[in-house]
Amino acid sequence: MANSAPVSTDVGHMYDVMTELFTALLDGNIHVGYWSDDEDQASVAEAATRLTDMVVGRVGAGPGSQVLDVGCGAGTASLRLATTQDGTVVTGISVSHGQIDTARARARELGVAHRVHFRYADAMNMPFGPGMFDAAFAIESLIHMPDQDRALQEIATVLRPGARLVIADIVDRHPASGAEKEIIDNFCAVTQCRTIAALPDKLNRAGFEIVEFDDISTHVMRAFAALSDRMREVRADFVGRIAPAHFDQLVELFRRFSAVTAAGYVLAVAQRR
Ligand code: SAH
């Protein structure tokens, strides 16, 4: 709400270019997938939809609830929530103009544009009034924010007391060193992110109680290798729009990041005090 917050214009530009690729391979999503165990044969697209449902199912929204999707991508989770929980009113925000256009078009196609709204906005500088929302969720968006504390404080401000926040994101599990540190640093540089350190402390400081905090790394990290494989298969279709060197760098980095253990993945539910 103050105007001195850092901005995320570059992240937005990156997603203007990359969204079509990721959503084509991940059934409209831009996040990892969830597999029950090593035997689970689900495709990365099916597994990504599962993770969407795990998040959406934890939001606890009902008819008339106002829900905020922080970093909405192409709008898939917002639309999933609105179409599975009748009467829910969802607002998705993103710093990619391209994503907002795509998400709005999809809401119109699905006939839910009257209660699913998409808007260009920076989560570190929210354009919403205090206590406006009954719930919020953030899937792999906090990781892109230069000031994660500030984003969480902004989310806390726009939520009413008692409201839920569901987060699915990449966190530090233990200090990285050597080859792992190099992989994580490269991954973060190329995808413009920073793995989230001490998320429970950040949530506490922002005014949240932790309700659930699950390290689901063993169920999701294979998504990066699976995505890398799929990217290689569709390379010819996308290297016109995405610079070939950048595309190949991502293929390699995702494959390597998949095996990292110092970084992992958390599904967290918190409640605004
Ligand atoms: N949650 C979606 C998209 C994840 S990709 C999904 O799971 O499919 C990361 C998203 O975070 C993008 O939509 C990007 O625009 C958004 N994002 C990154 N930084 C942001 C910021 N400061 N404010 C709002 N959205 C942001």
Automatic annotation (TrEMBL):
Biological process annotations from GO: methylation
Keyword line: Methyltransferase, S-adenosyl-L-methionine, Transferase
Matches recorded under InterPro entries: Erg6_SMT_methyltransf, MeTfrase_dom, Methyltranfer_dom, SAM-dependent_MTases_sf
MF term (GO), any: methyltransferase activity
Polyketide synthase-like methyltransferase domain sequence ranges: 22-262
PANTHER family to which the protein is assigned, alphabetical: GERANYL DIPHOSPHATE 2-C-METHYLTRANSFERASE, ZGC:194242
Protein name: Cyclopropane fatty-acyl-phospholipid synthase
